[in-house]
Structure formats: structure tokens, C-alpha cells
Amino acid sequence: MLAGTGVSPGAGYGPAHVLAGEIPEPDKEARHDGDAAAERARAERAVEEVAADLEARGARAGGEAEEVLGAQALMARDPSLAVEVGELIERGVAAPRAVFDAFGKYRDLLAAAGGYLAERVADLDDIRDRVIAVLTGLPMPGVPASAAEPFVLVAKDLAPADTALLSKDVVAAFVTEQGGPTSHTAILARSMGVPAVVGCAGATAIAPGTPVLVDGASGQVLLAPDPARVAEARAAEEARRAVLSAATGPGATADGHPVPLLANIGGPRDLESALANGAEGVGLYRTEFLFLDRETAPSGSEQEEAYRAVFEAFPEGRVVVRTLDSGADKPLAFLPPPEEEPNPALGERGLRMFRRYPEIMTAQLGALARAATGVSAKVQVMAPMVATVEEAEWFADACRTAGLDGAGIMIEVPSAALRAVDLIRAVDFFSIGTNDLTQYALAADRQVSAVAGLQDPWHPAVLDLIAMAASAASAAGKGCGVCGEAAADPVLACVLVGMGVTSLSMGAPALPWVRAALSRHTLAQCRDAAAAARSATSAQAAKAAARAELPGLEALAF
Length: 558
Fold this sequence. Notes:
This protein is α/β, with parallel strands linked by helices. The chain contains 22 helices and 16 strands. It folds into three domains: 2-19 and 142-242, Phosphohistidine domain (Glucose Oxidase, domain 1); 36-136, Enzyme I, Chain A, domain 2; 247-556, TIM Barrel, CATH 3.20.20. Helix 8 (184-192) links the parallel strand 5 and strand 6. Helix 11 (300-313) crosses helix 13 (358-372). Residues 4-120 form the Phosphotransferase system enzyme I N-terminal domain.
């Protein structure tokens, strides 16, 4: 048995297809024939061919894959890379080697940055290898498009271009040696509904064709499992699917306590999945995807069109829009970079960036107000990274000035949770971002793999902060939702409801799992589970204590 990090739930079984065929490093001494202009043009054509292919693959795949591959194409066309390649060619270096060295320089910069940026190294390596393949005539790296039976795809890491056009009919599961919960393998696997395990040491040593059983929840990877174990896993998967199918309708506990189940989306492209999985609305509309990877800010009309498309998809439903959350690992090319930030997660991001550039804020809030005019959806707007009462009051006033009702804030900073009684007076609702709240509460950067073990929302300290925010909102007669990854865990979802959370928002594929878990337990059971979890002294103990209070979750085990 091998073990990694489970990032997409479910069980997958099939023969291992180990992705190999890496493009070899070009000769360090390779020189061109002296015509630098022709060699530079050859390199430029190869880069553009790869970028265009990535965009075409994204267009065919749609959804999150289109956004991911579009961003990768932009990386390929980065002018700084083109300049670096050109300078090397001018010095006589052959195009393949020039590409390898130029990309290597930027690769090192990303790797040194750590976290989310470091996880983009695999994307840059993929672009590099594809360009070199075009220049040298080598076969393009890739994944089999079809097979006699679904296979388990095993790799050191997977590039978005390899996975974007695959489907669960072809791939039973993904297993990679590298990557983390925010890697593109994890993102695309969850959007596809395919089990996945990342960070699995020794995975590429699996002999091709070896039968592999993958548990995308626990992170276990069993090699050549006993037939009885496979039959057991398949029976468990069938039982799980039966439970999921049986739970329909709006989210609610077994005794009828309503818990609206909402979707986290990045734009109109995600609506199909949200609606297909029974989302009752949107609990987190990540508007930054409109702003990233572009040289100029989106126009007011472009923003208005995107917002209205989402509002109209949920007539009478609730749509919560998060205002631009930039900074840290999400820089904007059209804004000057902040001064040196040794720890960007503690620097200018979220509301802090919004206040620094009021013209961006005014344009976005104005577009939201226009888009909300005449629609029946209940539109609410919230600000990220609010730490003080003054910030909450400032944002609520800005929303009112723009003509927007329903201003809220995200609880992501411990100070906001600790003083939630004061902050709730300034706004209409809270939405807890458990990813950031956990990293700040435990001083564990969620982009640094070395401290990934601390990045666990089950930690009792995090649960206490959530309970404080929910209690403050309840006492004021206002709502408190959760839109972080914690909401997607069926067991933790029950605990959150037991602590007074009023709505849950998550990636669309997780909605059926959470709906089923809630439907099997009463509100009293959820409260007992919450109390048991908060009485524990570690994340592991909290989860075990909660599960003991929530019988019947075996089919939905994460």
C-alpha cells in the first residue's frame, strides 16, 4: 500500500498507466547555424503553436479546464520569456536549449516563491517540454485518449493539458507523486468527479499494468489488491452512490431544519455543474477570475454581463458575490506590484487592495448594482480579509453608496471571529472562509507543504472561532454561512450546522455528499457532534469524536 493526500473522494480501480516519455534535456552545447533571426522566429512559432493548442484544448473541455489552460497559454506567451529566449539565441544558443534555459530561470523563481506559485512549476515544465517537442520533432508528451478499460493514471505530476480532455469513462483515478490540494490535478479531478491522490511517494515506481485500487478520500493506494478487497470497495461505492441518489431537494437535517446548500463558482462557466448538482444558489462567486491574467481591468459592461448571467440562473435564490480578492498568490498584471512582502499572506490582499485602488472598487460595485437591477435573485456582496470593525463599516457604507443591499464580510482573520459581536452590527451577514481562517489561526501558510499537517479545519481552535462567529450572528438575528473547503466534508458539515452555521457553500460535486449526510442526522445529533468535536484536543480526536455522534456515515466516509 502507498499513501498520499486524498483530494477527490470516491474509489477507483483499474490497471496503472504510468505516464512517462519525458522530453530529454537538450544538449548544453547545442548551437544554431548562425542565422539568429531565423532561429528566433522558429522558437516563436513553436511557442505560439503550443499556446494555440492549449487554448484549443481548453475550448473543447470548457469549465474550469478552459480557465486553467487559458492561463497556461498566457504563461507560454509571456513577453519576458520571449525576450529571454531571444537573448540566448542571439548569443548562438540553439532554440531548444534556449527555451530550456529561459524556462528554467522562471521555473526557479516560481519554485523559490513556494505555495501556490510553486505548484505552477508543473505547468511551466509542461509548456517547456511541449515547445521543445515541437522544435525537435519528438512525440508530444501526453496521456492515452482511449483504452480497453478505465485506467488509473499515475505520474510524477500531471499538466492541465494532459487531463483536461479526459473523462471518468476513461480514467478511474489519478495518482501523482507531487502536488497538493491546490494543484491543478486536484482542481480538475474534483471538477470531473474522479478519485485522486496526490503527494504519493513512490507512485511512479508502480509497474505499468499493475491493478490499482485508489481511495480518493483516505489517500490510500493499494497495489494488486485481493479480489475480495476490490469487491468490497465496489460495493461500498455502490452503497455510497445509492445514498447520494436518495437525498434530493433542498438541504435539511433529518428533522427538517433547513440548511441551504450553495455552490462556490468562478463565473458563468461553472453554472452547469452547480445546477446539475442541485445548488440552491451561490455562496461564493469568486469574481477575481474576471480580473486575473489580463493586462487591463475588465470593463464595467463585461463585469455586468458576467454577474447578471449568474444572477439569472438562480431566480428567487441567493447569490453571494465576493468582491475582488487579489494580492498574495493572485497578483493583477494591470496594477503595480506592492512593495516587497516577505509574507504576502499577511500583506496587501483582499479588502486592503480594494481600498488602495478605489477606482477598481467603484467600478465593480457599480457593475454589481446594475446587474442586480430587475433580477429576482437575492444578491448579496461580501468583502474578503476584513480584520476590524472600521473595515466592516467602510465596506458596508461603500455598498450602500453603490445602491447594493445586503453587505457582508468574510470571517477569515482571527480578530474578526474574536470580535464578531462588534462586526456583525456593521453588516448583514457573515461568511466564514475556513481555508484562510485555519492558516491564520495556526500560523500555517496554506501554500507551504511543510506545514500542511496543521492546515486542518478540524482543529478545535478553528472550530471555536467558527462557533464564536456563528453565535454572534445568531444573537443578532443574522445569517452565518461557511464557504471554505470545510463545508465540502460531509462529517464536518454536520458539525458546522451543529455550531449554528446557517448555510453551506462548496464546490458543486460535493453538494450531493453533504446533502446526504445532513439528511441522515437530526439537528440535535449535529449539535452533539459539534460539542464533542470542540471538547477534543486535536484535529484527529475532534473528527473521531464527531463521527461517534453521527452514526450511519460509513457510506459517505471521507
